[in-house]
Structure to design on (914 residues):
């Protein structure tokens, strides 16, 4: 497969963008599409035939009709005047195609008259996508007999509708659609709208039928969706149903229940019912697809692991994850379908709204699961990490070409930061202003396309008394301030002890350097003082620095933003950090879990950026000894993993293990390995798994021995373990599994029809410590296309490789040995393609920690030669050099000194380390 590296793609996009106009001319606009598609996907056929009638109105005289098209072959085109029945043929225009802009131009011999209506009928052919879950794509699954069954579905956002039919593929252009799908009679079809009449036998082939759907609401091309499958249908209520392959159809029940619950919550919250505009809502579970969901209107395609739940094999994490994914996809029904952006520049607003509502909406429906806590872990913290580089770009970012537009959708930085900034706005406004403003926005702009200002204006108009902003500041000014600038600030808090003054200042935060910046962010903040005295709910820093007058006790810690929902980091003077550490060590209740989690995340980032002594982070983590909340532990997990990876194989390793023992000891003693308490909250379950993972990983407290025993019992009984402890038991059981036990795991994975369970088992097998087993496992990932008995999904082959190098250094060495043969490396590239090979090299380098490991990597480079691109090799060498240089860094010295002293201070002379 042709492969362009990201930098080259961006360079090409920039060159093309400077010499081409990607927007369509405005001379004509569509008023309706009538689409007819024929597919034989039941027979694995990729080619499809299409015909589209584009109803047009002429806005200004022209002799050209320009539409978007991608990878379509035009067979014929006829222009009609629909003023009579039958239509009057005007001419058969010629056509030309411009590949850089993807403009398909139909040239007429006579000008089209201003104000007149025409219909352009285009007959064409295309091919189903197989490498991307985009456009009109094909996927397959295996039925209970092991036979491949193929299905076709769509994902048109942002610019993939043009790959399926010639169209005006811009978000501001809304019109109605009628869709007819011609397919084999053993299959069924579904689209945004319900069926329009009974199925009709195809006049060309009596084994085929025509499924026609009712005319849609006016919508942009990216909201259109359809699918042709042999799936079964399940419904719990008349208006919502789910489609899935027959061997997992019962696993859709939770998704349907969650969908009903979330829709009810949204209908109330938005005061604008989904059913006002759409007559039904369909969920479809797509096999071998990426996690997440499409954003189409009334028909949402989910990757199977994000929709299907089987209580017999799926653990406790799956249900809240499904609720979050459904909540995000259903939020798009309002933000993106009911109201559309005028151009993709503004899409970050709707993207951020949907990402934020994924958690907020799930919490409205299931408050007991505390989804907004997960928002902090899964959105805010990653966004702050990603947006801390000099290369970060602002949210308001101009895009024109399809490559640039796709870059916005593929960017976790854009999606997460947008959600974080919008959530900050929601918090500043307060629930009443926010909810009222969103309702006004939806009512005012239903079935319309907008810029970001439309949302800001609606929110601004709801503010009546007690304005949340400083005098004369508007919602637009606040949001543009955060959206126009790359990156984000660190707020420095310096207490002047013995006075009533603190100094609060701001500067741009960068993870790897310090650069002067004159930019001033509009920063809302509040404070926690014990006790809270004279602190308003929101104060503002709208200059580089300011004095804040507040009465507080010099012996008590101060925390800025006790409920962190702001998109910046906070650093304190050294004495306040010490007060925070002392308070935490004494009792975790000194502040709430979200604040404790953010203290860890901020301190770690600040220390890595040389803005804070790393010993502060390590001492802060000692507060975890008494902490029974998942949020701070999950945040600390990233820090502890960093230390684990840096110190593995060094003289400081035993000190780190001792440090970990003291952190997890209290929590581990509350657990009974293998016992699942039905009364445990989601927080309890998450924390228990995290603690067990660390104790088993470090082989302390008999954890790994317990996991091995439980694993062997499962093998002997040929039965799975309880889903809630299966990740730990399968992984650490696989570590010492003999060949028959490893094969049992392997066969269990292949027999499973549940993709989430398959994923768990694939990861577990990567935990093996047997190089023989890992070599056979890696071989299976590239031999899947040879034997019909091997039934990996395509993306699972890559997951096998990732599971092996991610689990342990033994796996990294096994992967090196596997690739350290030119023929095997060549086969690896043939089956998994060059990007997978390059990614494997990068991850081996990332996990190379000493000279012996470096020598193994260099030997691999000598063996594979030109199979490893020069830039991949040079990047890997730079990564390893940075890893090795770290051991001589100040940070490494501080960590080593702290751990040595910690061990010495903790163990009394008569004690021994066990």
């Amino acid at each position: 497969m042709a492969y362009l590296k990201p930098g080259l793609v961006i360079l090409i996009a920039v060159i093309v963008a400077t010499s081409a106009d990607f927007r369509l001319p405005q001379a004509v606009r569509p008023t309706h599409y009538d689409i007819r598609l024929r597919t034989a996907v039941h027979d694995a056929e990729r080619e499809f035939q299409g015909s589209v009638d584009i109803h047009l109105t002429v806005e200004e005289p022209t002799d050209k009709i320009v539409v978007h098209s991608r990878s379509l072959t035009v067979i014929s085109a006829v222009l009609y005047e629909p003023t009579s029945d039958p239509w009057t043929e005007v001419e058969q225009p010629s056509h030309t195609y411009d590949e850089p802009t993807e403009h398909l131009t139909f040239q007429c011999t006579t000008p089209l008259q201003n104000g007149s209506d025409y219909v352009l009928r285009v007959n064409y052919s295309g091919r189903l996508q197989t490498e991307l879950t985009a456009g009109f794509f094909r996927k397959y699954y295996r039925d209970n007999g092991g036979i491949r069954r193929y299905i076709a579905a769509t994902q048109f956002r942002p610019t993939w509708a043009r790959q399926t039919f010639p169209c005006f593929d811009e978000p501001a252009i809304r019109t109605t659609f009628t869709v007819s799908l011609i397919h084999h009679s053993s299959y069924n079809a579904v689209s945004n709208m319900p069926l329009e009449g009974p199925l009709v036998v195809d006049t060309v082939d009596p084994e085929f039928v025509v499924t026609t759907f009712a005319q849609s609401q006016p919508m942009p091309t990216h909201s259109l969706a359809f699918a042709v499958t042999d799936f079964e249908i399940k419904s719990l209520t008349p208006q919502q149903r789910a489609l899935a392959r027959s061997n997992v159809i019962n696993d859709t029940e939770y998704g349907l229940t969650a969908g009903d619950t979330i829709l009810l919550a949204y209908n109330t919250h938005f005061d604008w019912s989904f059913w006002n505009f759409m007559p039904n809502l369909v969920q479809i579970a797509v096999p071998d697809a990426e996690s997440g969901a499409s954003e189409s209107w009334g028909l949402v395609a989910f990757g199977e692991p994000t929709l299907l739940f089987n209580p017999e094999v799926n653990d406790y994490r799956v249900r809240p994850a499904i609720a979050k994914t459904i909540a995000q996809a259903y939020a798009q029904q309002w933000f993106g379908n009911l109201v559309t952006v005028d151009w993709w520049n503004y899409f970050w607003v709707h993207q951020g709204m949907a990402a934020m509502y994924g958690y907020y909406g799930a919490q409205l429906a299931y408050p007991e699961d505390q989804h907004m806590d997960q928002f902090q872990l899964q959105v805010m913290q990653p966004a702050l990490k990603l947006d801390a580089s000099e290369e970060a770009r602002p949210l308001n970012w101009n895009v024109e070409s399809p490559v640039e537009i796709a870059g916005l959708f593929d960017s976790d930085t854009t999606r997460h930061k947008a959600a974080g900034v919008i959530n900050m706005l929601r918090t500043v406004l307060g629930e009443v202003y926010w909810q009222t403003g969103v309702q006004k926005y939806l009512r005012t702009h239903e079935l319309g396309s907008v810029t970001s200002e439309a949302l800001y204006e609606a929110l601004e108009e709801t503010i009546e008394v007690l304005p949340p902003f400083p005098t004369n500041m508007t919602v637009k000014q606040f949001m543009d301030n955060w959206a126009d600038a790359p990156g984000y600030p660190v707020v420095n808090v310096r207490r002047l002890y013995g006075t009533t003054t603190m100094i609060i200042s701001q500067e741009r935060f960068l993870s790897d350097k310090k650069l002067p910046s004159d930019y001033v962010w509009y920063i809302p903040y509040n404070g926690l003082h014990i006790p809270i005295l004279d602190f308003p709910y929101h104060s503002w820093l709208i200059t580089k620095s300011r004095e804040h007058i507040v009465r507080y006790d010099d012996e008590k810690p101060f925390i800025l933003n006790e409920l962190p929902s702001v998109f910046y980091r906070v650093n304190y003077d050294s004495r306040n950090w010490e007060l925070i550490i002392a308070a935490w060590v004494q009792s975790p209740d000194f502040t709430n879990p979200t604040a404790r989690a953010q203290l860890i995340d901020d301190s770690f980032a600040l220390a890595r950026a040389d803005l804070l002594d790393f010993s502060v982070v390590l001492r802060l983590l000692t507060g975890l000894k008494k902490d029974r909340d998942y949020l701070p532990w999950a945040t600390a997990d990233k820090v502890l993993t960093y230390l684990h990876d840096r110190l593995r194989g060094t003289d400081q390793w035993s000190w780190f293990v001792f440090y970990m023992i003291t952190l997890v000891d209290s929590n581990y003693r509350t657990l009974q390995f293998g016992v699942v308490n039905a009364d445990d909250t989601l927080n309890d379950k998450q924390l228990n798994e995290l603690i067990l993972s660390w104790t088993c990983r470090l082989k302390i407290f008999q954890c790994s021995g317990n996991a091995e025993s439980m694993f062997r019992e499962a093998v002997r009984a040929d039965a799975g373990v309880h889903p809630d402890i299966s990740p730990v038991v399968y992984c650490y059981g696989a570590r010492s599994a003999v060949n028959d036990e490893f094969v049992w795991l392997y066969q269990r994975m292949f027999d499973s029809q549940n993709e989430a369970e398959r994923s768990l088992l694939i990861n577990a097998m990567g935990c093996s410590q047997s190089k023989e087993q890992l070599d056979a496992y890696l071989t299976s990932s590239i031999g899947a296309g040879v034997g019909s008995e091997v039934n990996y999904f395509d993306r699972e082959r890559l997951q096998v490789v990732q599971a092996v190098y991610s689990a342990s250094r033994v796996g990294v060495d096994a992967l090196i040995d596997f690739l350290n043969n030119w023929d095997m490396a060549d086969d690896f590239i043939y089956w998994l393609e060059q990007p997978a090979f390059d990614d494997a090299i990068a991850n081996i380098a990332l996990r190379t920690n000493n000279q012996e490991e470096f020598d193994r990597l260099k030997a691999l480079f000598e063996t594979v030669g030109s199979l490893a691109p020069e830039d991949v090799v040079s990047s890997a060498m730079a990564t390893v050099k940075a890893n090795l240089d770290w051991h001589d860094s100040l940070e490494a010295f501080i960590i080593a000194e702290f751990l040595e002293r910690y061990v010495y201070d903790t163990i009394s002379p008569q004690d021994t380390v066990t």
Observations:
- The first helix runs from residue 6 to 19.
- The chain is about 45% helix and 20% strand.
